[in-house]
Amino acid sequence: MKALLLSAGLGTRLKPFTDHHPKALAPVNGRSLLEWNIRNLQRFGIYDIVVNVHHFAQQIIDILEAENGFGSRIEISDESDAVLETGGGLVKAAHFLAQEPEFLVMNVDILTNTDISKLIARHKAHPCWATLAIQQRKSSRYFIFDDQLVLKGWENVQTGEERIPSGKRIPSWSSYAFSGIHVISPVLLQQIRQRGKFSLVDVYLDLCASGQIRGWEHTGDLLIDVGKPESLEKAGALFADIPF
Questions:
Q1: pLDDT of res. 241
Q2: CATH number at 2-238
Q3: pLDDT at position 62, please?
Q4: Residue ranges of domains in the chain
Q5: How far apart are CA 179 and CA 169, in angstroms?
Q6: Is 40 left (phi over 0), alpha (psi -120 to 50) or beta?
Q7: Do 151 and 144 touch, CB atoms closer than 8 A?
Q8: Is the pLDDT of residue 243 over 80?
Q9: Which residue in 108, 106, 110, 107 sits closest to 223, CA to CA?
């Protein structure tokens, strides 16, 4: 199985570190976020990894070459010309992934102890275009799912914005925070209509009426979005005893 590790973002929330480095190289307990995630994927037998790059791209390429991919086989999806966000990044890297039965996509600034093999097993047991790892946790933005964990919409609780493609929210539907980890079937690549710079959130909302975008809940697992300087210190404490 292959994974796409989304590492191209500007990391503006991690300034001043990202004034001179990519966010993927931000350190947690002496290891970069990039290394943490590569070694974590190895725990689940995933050694073929595509890394997309843009901001200080050469720094990521150089460290991967110097460290022999930290033991994994690495392919680079180069977005040096323009950062494409998560959706555009997936389309750019599609030729690396299209022949896989399914593949994993993960944000490089997410650290978690979740059992990714369970997410993969859920996707295989209930085939669909994409299975999203989700949790019941505090966030400003949520995906909305029905009681079968089929995606129905999205909301921003701070602004009150709500996007329900069906037009009407049902009381039994529930809101979950997205964990930045998804398993995708290559057929999804054929359904994406957007081009250029765009988010996978927009893709999922565009396609959710199909019933082919589903969730996998892992509430209670350790997960942190390492997006701000103070979160690096918090991540260091939370993951001090993680064996990878």
A1: 72
A2: 3.90.550.10
A3: 98
A4: 2-238
A5: 23
A6: alpha
A7: yes
A8: no
A9: 110
